[in-house]
Amino acid sequence: MAVNGIDLSINRGELFSLLGPNGAGKTTTINMLCCLLKPTRGTASILGYDIMKQPYQVKRRIGVSPQETAVSDLLNCWENLSLVGKAQGMQSATLRKRSRELLETMGLVDRARDQVRKFSGGMRRRLNMIMALVHDPEILFLDEPSLGLDPQARRAIWDYVTQLKGKKTILLTTHYMEEADTLSDRIGIMDEGRIVALGTSDELKRSFTETRTMIVSAGNVTPTVLAGLRAKYLRVEASDEELKLSDKDLDFKEIIDYLHSQGVTVCSAALEQPTLEDVFLSITGKALRE
Amino acid sequence: MRVFELAKRNFKEIMRDRILIAFLIGLPVVFMLIFGFAFRGMDIQELSLGVVDQDNTPISEAFATDCLENIPALETSSYNSESEAMEELRVGDLDGVLIIPEGFGAAVQHKTGINLTVFYDETDLAVGERLTSIIGSAAIAFSGVDIPVHIDDHPSQTEEIGYMNILGPGMTVFGLLILIPTAASLIAKDKEKQMMPRLLTTPLKPWEFIAGYSLPYIPVLIIQIGIYLGIAYALGLKIVGNFGLVLLILFLLGLSGVALGMIFGTLIKRESQAPISWLLIIPMAMLSGAWFSTEGMNSVMVGIAKAFPPTYAIRAAQDVISRGLGFENIATDFYILLGFAVGLFVIGAMLFRRRMLA
Prior knowledge:
The complex is a heterodimer of chains A (290) and B (358).
Chain A: E1 15-19, H1 26-33, E2 45-46, E3 49-50, H2 55-59, E4 62-65, H3 77-87, H4 92-105, H5 121-133, E5 139-143, H6 151-164, E6 169-174, H7 177-183, E7 186-191, E8 194-199, H8 201-208, E9 212-219, H9 223-232, E10 235-239, E11 242-247, H10 252-261, E12 265-272, H11 276-284
Parallel strand pairs in A: 1-6, 1-7, 4-5, 5-6
Antiparallel strand pairs in A: 2-3, 7-8, 9-11, 9-12, 10-11
Helix pairs in contact in A: 3-4, 3-5, 8-11
Chain B: H1 2-15, H2 18-38, E1 47-53, H3 58-67, E2 74-79, H4 82-90, E3 96-100, H5 104-109, E4 114-120, H6 125-143, E5 149-155, H7 164-177, H8 179-192, H9 195-200, H10 206-214, H11 217-234, H12 243-267, H13 278-288, H14 299-305, H15 309-321, H16 327-356
Parallel strand pairs in B: 1-2, 1-3, 4-5
Antiparallel strand pairs in B: 3-4
Helix pairs in contact in B: 1-10, 2-7, 2-11, 7-11, 7-12, 7-15, 8-12, 11-12, 12-15, 12-16, 13-14, 13-15, 15-16
C-alpha cells in the first residue's frame, strides 16, 4: 500500500513539506489530493471541497508541478502556458499578461518563443512550475520541484518558492533535507506510506534527537582533562586538537568553564545542530537516502 | 473554448513532428510508386462470365454449355438479355460478358469467320487479357483450328482506367490506417511524459478530452486523403463515379482509424508501444483487398476480413471509383463503415473515460 492512513491538516498560506525517501508515498499523496487517484479509503477536502465528490471545484483551485517535467516539447512557452491557462478557463488577455509576468520572473521570457525541446533541464523545470502557477491557483502542489537540478538552478527554484510563501498554500514533496529545512513552515516526515513525524523543523529536531553534540577545537588537552569529561558526559572523543562531546544535556558554558579551569586553550566551540536526517534516522532506524 | 485549445495543441504536436508527418504521408506514397510497378499485371484466380446467347441454336448452346462451362478458369452463367448481363457486370458481380451473336451456329457449320463480343470489368486489368485469351482459344477449339474467330472486346467502363485505379484507393486506405499508431502515440506520449496527468488536474471534462484528442485528426485525414488521391490522380487514377462519395467513404475509414488509435493509446503505457498496432494494420490491409485481389481466399480469412472496416471501405471505394456506382449500390458497405466509425469511437471514448478519468 503506497499510502496508509494519513491524517493531516494544512493551514491556508502555509508551506508544508512532505519529506521522505523514494517510495515513501509522497507523490501518491499529492496525486490523491489532485484528484488523479481515488483513495481506497478515507477522504480529503481542499478549501472545503471534497476531492471525491467535488473534483472539478478542487481542480479549479489547484496548480500542480509534477515530479517529471510535464511540458509539451514541440510547443513553445506561450503555447504550453496557453494550453494550461485555457484549460483552467482563463481569458486570453489575462493569460498573456500573467504568462509574461511569470516568464520574466523565472527568466524565460527571452526564450519564450523557442520550442521546449531546445531547453535545458533547469529551464524545463522552471516552465513546469510556471505552468502550475499561470492561473494563479490558491493551492500549489510542488512534487520534487528541484529533483535532478544543479545547485544553481535549485537555488533559483527555492528563491521563487520563498517569494510565494504566505501568498499561496503550498504542499511540497522532497527528499532533500535542506530543501524541506530551508523552505518549510512545517514538515511531515513520511515513511512506508505513513507520516511518522510532524512539526516545524526545530520541533522535529528537538523532539526526536535525544543527544546533542558539541565540537571544541582546543589545545593542551591532557588525559586528566579527558578523564574528567568522560566521567561526566556520555561520549567524549578526542582527535588531534578536536574534542567531540555527546549527551542528552550539554551545557555549553559549563564545559567551556571546565576546560579553562584545567588550563586548556579553547580556540573555538560550537553546539552541533541535529539535522532532519538525524530525526529520520532516530524515528525509522534508517537513513533518508536508503 | 477549452476543447479547441486542446485540439489546437494536439494538431500542432502532430504537424511539428517531422518524422511522424513523413511517415503518415510519405509511406503510402512510396508504396504507391513501388507497388505500381511491382504488381502490374497481377493474375486473378477464376473469372465469372455471363453468357448471352443471341443465336439460340444447338451449336451456340453447345458452345456455351459443353465448351465454356468445362473451362476450369471460368465460372459461367447464362443471361437472356444483354442488358441484364451488363447490369451484373456494372455492379461488379461479373468479370465479363460474352455475346454470342446471331449466325454463330451457321458460321461454325460453314466454317466461316464469326465475331464474338466480350465486355469485361476493367477494374482489374488482368481480366480483359485473360478473358479474351480464354474465350478465343475455346472458340477456335470448338469450331476448328483453321477457322478464324475474331473477338471484339469492350471494357465495361466508358473511360479508360489504369492500374492506379486498383493501387490508388488501396494505398489511400493503407495510409489512413497509419492514423492508428499516430493517434495512439499522441495519447501514450502524453501519458508517458506526464502531460496527461497535468491536464487531468485541470477542470477539463471527459468529453473535452475525447474531442481534444480526436478533432485534430480531422484536418490531418483530410490532408492525407487529398495528397494520396492527388498523387494517385497524377499517376493515372480515373474516378468514374461521384468524387464526393469517395471522399466520404475514405473519411469514415479515417475516423475508424482515429478511434482505433484512441483505443490503443488508452491501453498502452508508453509511446514506444504504439507500433504494436501494426499487428492489426497489416492483416487489416492485406485481407481488405487493398493490396491484391482476395478472390479465392479461404472462408475463415473472408470471415476475419469482414470484421475489419477497410474491407468495406476498399470495396465501396473501388465500386465508386472504377465502376462508377452510386450510393444506392454501395449503401450496405457505407452503412457498415459508418457503424464501425461510430461504434469504435464510442468504445474508444468509454475506454478513455474509464482508464484515464476514473
